[in-house]
Amino acid sequence: MIRSTDQGGGLWRVTIDRPEKANSLTAEMLETLADTFEGLVEARAVVLTGTGRVFSAGMDLAAASEGLGTSPVWERLSTAIAAQKGLTIAALNGTLAGGATGMALACDLRLAVPDARFFYPVMKLGFLPQPSDPGRMAALIGPARTKLILMGGARIPAQEALTFGLIDRIVDGDVVAEAEALCADTLTAAPDHAMAIKAMCGG
């Protein structure tokens, strides 16, 4: 349900492939994602996407009773993504919900299709967000808008998310191809040069 493919030249694509369940995440899938990103730390660029019409509905609700909502694996995953030395891009092929938000927030860039929606219903579900998510979100969109999403339960359409700064570009077409095209300069640069620029931008 998690596929990682070497696209050549230091570019990797990681795909959440459970479209029949809106790419909702089980404990096993989260462990695989964390293992995958921990193993890709030397990659030049990584594009994270999903299959179907939804990027990820977040936690598989059938696993909620097993404590997945408060598992440390969510934070382990977002930490592994944030630790990547190369460029990371979330190519959001559809709606992004709940705990899956942490993956996108930890990426360097976020692209989305026009009909994507964004919501993180931790207040409604009674869970705290992943520890790093509020800070990363507030750094992008400010504290008030972060509270709008986390405390107000607001559902944010793609155009509003772009205005907020939650995503960086709306792609009316192949969002994965656009993301991989944006990796071209990083892939052709010397690794140390790319890493230095990323560090200068704040990691």
Verbal overview:
Strand 2, helix 1 and strand 3 form a beta-alpha-beta unit. The chain has a single domain (2-198), classed as 2-enoyl-CoA Hydratase, Chain A, domain 1. The longest helix is centred in the first third of the chain and has 13 residues, at 27-39. It has helices at residues 27-39, 73-82, 101-106, 122-125, 133-141, 143-150, 158-164, 175-182, 184-188, 191-200; strands spanning 2-8, 11-16, 45-50, 54-56, 87-92, 95-97, 109-112, 117-119, 156-157, 169-170. Helix 1 packs parallel to helix 2 (73-82) and helix 5 (133-141) crosses helix 6. Helix content is 39%, strand content 21%. The strands form two sheets. It has a six-stranded mixed sheet, with helices on both faces. The protein is an alpha/beta fold. It is globular, with a radius of gyration of 16 Å.
H-E order: EEHEEHEEHEEHHHEHEHHH
The parts where pLDDT drops under 50 for at least 5 residues are none
Strand order of the largest sheet: 1-2-3-5-7-10
Structural class: alpha/beta
* Radius of gyration, in angstroms, nearest whole number: 16 Å
Task: Give the termini distance in whole angstroms.
Answer: 29 Å
The number of domains: 1
The count of DSSP E runs of length 2 or more, i.e. the number of strands, is 10
Helix percentage range = 25-40%
Structure annotation, total helices: 10
CATH class equals Alpha Beta
Task: Characterize the main sheet.
Answer: 6 strands, mixed
